Amino acid sequence: MGWTNFAIEKLGKGETVQIRPRGNSMTGKVNDGALVTLAPCVPATLKTGDVVLVRVHGNVFLHLIKATNQDRFLIGNNRGKINGWVGSNAIYGVAIKVEN
Q1: Which end of the chain is more exposed for a tag (fewer CB within 10 A), N or C?
Q2: In this predicted model, what pLDDT tens digit does every residue of 39-96 receive, in sequence order?
């Protein structure tokens, strides 16, 4: 995913970024090719149901927070797949607008 490095870099600098991710794993929340605006996030404000740009097991996804446990987050897609638990340092940004 070429857009991921660009987005991670911008978010790391505190900037908002727009991306157009491809794929169907988030259909219903983020459709294939939708325009998604991501903003840097404060982990303490993240909640179940947020769409986040996150690294899980070496892969970067735009997926959902399925559950939280203090400073850990369970990540999965919108079709029932669970990717696993991550720490707050693995979350780069949160979707603040999705234009399907």
Answers
A1: C
A2: 999 999 999 999 999 999 999 999 999 999 989 999 999 999 999 999 999 999 999 9
What amino acid occupies position 76?
Answer: G
Distance CA 73, CA 64 (A): 10
Provide the domain count of the chain.
Answer: 1
Contacts of 89 (CB under 8 A, 6+ apart): none
Q: How far apart are CA 28 and CA 40, in angstroms?
A: 23
Q: Across the chain, how many H-helices and E-strands are there?
A: 1, 7
- CATH number of the domain within which 65 lies: 2.10.109.10
The whole-model pTM stands at 0.95
Q: How far apart are CA 35 and CA 67, in angstroms?
A: 25
Range of the domain at 9: 2-99
